[in-house]
Amino acid sequence: MRRREFIKYSAALGALSVIPTWARMPVLSERPALPVPDLLQADIHGKIRLRIQAGKTLFNGKQVTTWGYNGNLLGPALALNKGTEVTVEMHNALSQPTTVHWHGLAIPGSVDGGPQGIIAPGETRTVTFTPDQAASTCWFHPHYHKHTGQQVAMGLAGLVLIDDAAQGALRLPKQWGIDDVPLIIQDKRFTTAGEIDYQLDMMTAAVGWFGDTLLCNGAEYPQHAPPRGWLRLRLLNGCNARSLTIAASDNRPFYVIASDGGLLPEPVKTTSLPLLMGERFEIMVDTSDGTPFDLVTLPVTQMGMTLPPFDKPCPVVGIRPLRIPASGDLPDTLVALPALPALEGLTQRVLTLSMDPRLDSQGMQALKDKYGQQAIGRGNMAGMNMHHASDMNSMQGMSGMQGMPQTHHMSNSAMGQEAFDLYTANRINGKAFDMHHPAFHVPQGRYERWVISGEGDMMLHPFHIHGMQFRILTENGQPPAEHRRGWKDTVRVEGRRSEVLVRFDYVASAEHAYMAHCHLLEHEDTGMMLGFTVGEV
Fold first, then answer.
1. Distance, first Cα to last Cα, the chain
2. Which of 170, 331, 327, 328 is nearest to 266 (CA)?
3. SS3 of 136, please?
4. What is the pLDDT of residues 225-264, one digit of tens each?
5. pTM
6. Can you list the positions of beta strands (E) in 320-422?
7. C-alpha closest to that of 210 among 237, 191, 185, 188
8. How far apart are CA 129 and CA 506, in angstroms?
9. How many CB atoms lie within 10 A of CB 351?
10. Measured between alpha carbons, how far is 407 from 405 in angstroms, rounded to an integer?
11. Rounded-to-integer distance, Cα 533 and Cα 509, Å
């Protein structure tokens, strides 16, 4: 057997039979080149400057208003080094407040950039921190409460690349934008006038805001021409609400080398890779045969998302290898992970995710009314988390609300009960997010076992915790897949329980609490989030 055959093989989740002929035969027509974010390093004073701004981006022949960091759309990739202090100066040139959250970074709550770290229009916020974690692909994005979904949909997202000595000792591909390539995958929806069509209403608060156009680094089905050999792809699911499953159009295998928080002990071989909202994975693909292929998303089965074009494989990026040989390699082993500590006697916290039954019933009914029964996907109305919901038609008028996010109230006569606030309709432990009252206090430096429960709720919840990287103990009632046993900051919760082992090494005060929340952004914006503090007992 060849040496590579000894690499651990995870169960293939996709199958060539589900990929249509058109996807196996790469399109030869002219497509845009894959845009590659600039790699931005600190200056000689250790400072990085970000300008949060509006601009115009060409989509479908129309100039569309978009937002970006240091540009019109998305942002640069920030290159940081473990143990090296960096200062980031963030100027908000938008007409509304925003924040910059450092998703995946283990840093103090005062610089984490959660909902409390507001940057008013025209103002500048400066934070200084020292990354002290393994080499990894993280990202930054807004976290302005009630507006996170809108601001990400408008284009605010960028990568953070942390490097360290252990990664530097490996012969992984290192040529940025050539054989070390970022792929920020997002779906978008546009109005007839061509503008981004973001809405937070009953339907999107229930199932999330989703699009009908797939973008990669801000372009629709772009092409990339790497040298032949090992290609390293840094994947980010930057969608507001859509889970993705990535595969190659010709079913060639790829090797997962890193998850949210860094490298795995060894590569994990697979032919498809589920990618939750906010998750990152790094994969290696062998292009030495020179054969063109596409990276695709397999048909979506997520409840509420089974609509064209995502009911079939959808191309993400075309890979067209050059004759030039690549220089990187795929090692047999990567980095050592510390063994899990003893779990007996640890403090256990249970976080139960739930949705107001009125939002649940009316949001799903609005989805069905707008898109038909096929939008429900593998779920069904009877299986939803109805919680003794009132009649499906009691709030029919709520389903048509349009426009920018705003608080929606129903009168007592319309509801037959208390007024309904859309922004408190999603909850953790029965309570919607309260920025001014953290839910609990966690002792600094101590392991805890957190149980995130989606029992009684059929929706997909990618649950994210700020301030550290955790290890998954069980995921949705099952042992974690091999490639999900490394450092993670997002865990899958879908109708069952997931358990994670957490430890917070930095302080988070009540004024700058860490967040724990669903990373389906419309769930987060409508209450499925809590704050917590970290410090001395």
1. 55
2. 331
3. strand
4. 999 999 999 999 999 999 999 999 999 999 999 999 999 9
5. 0.89
6. 347-355, 409-410, 420-421
7. 188
8. 11
9. 22
10. 7
11. 5
Write out the two tokens for 119.
């940057």
Q: What are phi and psi of 67, to 5 degrees?
A: -120, 150
Residues 264 and 485: their CA atoms lie apart, in Å, by 8
Across residues 46-59, what is the average pLDDT? Answer: 97
Place of tokens 């996010």: 405
Taking the C-alpha atoms of residue 83 and residue 418, their distance in angstroms, rounded to an integer, is: 53
Question: In this predicted structure, what is the pLDDT of residue 29?
Answer: 52
Contact 29, 287 (CB under 8 A): no
Q: Which residues are bridge partners to 92 per DSSP?
A: 52
Provide DSSP, 312-357.
S-EEEEEE---SSBP-----S-----PPPPP-TT-EEEEEEEEE-H
According to DSSP H, which parts of 318-468 are helical? 357-371, 412-415
Q: Are 120 and 112 spatial neighbours (Cβ–Cβ below 8 Å)?
A: no
Which residue is it, tokens 């007592």?
Answer: 412
Other beta carbons less than 10 A from residue 7's beta carbon: 16
Read off the pLDDT of residues 522-536 as tens digits, 9 standing for 90 and up.
999 999 999 999 999
Look at strands 529-535 and 440-443 and give their pairing. parallel
**Banded model confidence at residue 20, pLDDT cuts 50, 70, 90:** very low
The percent of residues in the chain predicted with pLDDT above 90, rounded, is 82
Q: What is the pLDDT, as a whole number, of residue 476?
A: 96
Phi, psi of 525 (to 5 degrees): -65, -20
Edge-first strand listing for the sheet containing 293-297: 223-224, 314-319, 293-297, 244-248, 272-275
